[in-house]
User: Fold these one by one.
Assistant:
Number 1:
Amino acid sequence: MKAILEFNLPDDQEYWDMAVKSREMAYALNDIRNYLRGRVKYEEMPAEKWETCDEIYQEFFRLLEQNNIKL
């Protein structure tokens, strides 16, 4: 199976950039996930700060799911 993406540059430059940088974006999302996980799971912090980090961590996964992204 083949898939061919066509872009009308420069009009579609934004979409072109997203297509060619998708691997780097996936790596960045994975790095963010690991950073947040480490903060929530391993870092000692006051309860209020932990709750804020956990809220951000949960929202991160909600947004990924909403956009059909699986890391």
Number 2:
Amino acid sequence: MAKLDVLFDGYGGGGVASTVSLIRDGDLVAVVDPGMVPSRGAILDPLAEHGVSPEDVTDVIISHHHPDHTINIALFPDVRIHDHWAIYHHDQWTPRPAEGVQLSTGVRLLETPGHTPQDITTLVDTENGVAALTHLWVYEGAGEDRLATDPDLLEKHRARVLGLATIIVPGHGPMYSVLA
């Protein structure tokens, strides 16, 4: 089973910060959505508490390309970066669709457009169930996404993810459980 830890619970309102997560599964040490936070220490300090240095991180996954989810990628010096259509590493851009990409035994990617046309969801098999790290929900209880580029696709992919996951890690809020 993969290990999932939320490093920082995101928020919106008086400021905006992304939810930043750490996934460990075999050789994979991934950070998801290292975006806007009050300070870099909001990512680096909890990472260190989990015994992980920035140099240990092998991969960064971004749910979509908004700066509030990407601005701190450079904290991790030698990573593969995954998005909806490629893997980026050093000066190499390797195109591939994200749909069904298996990053490790317990971690895979899904294409889930709706908030933006380029959104992806990271599914993580944990001992507590399948977690979906996604911007399909901004936070628990979020209904309408006023910034969604395609509300119909958003709803379609929400239903898809709810059929697969028992835990949601939303784009800007704490992790929560759902009924599968």
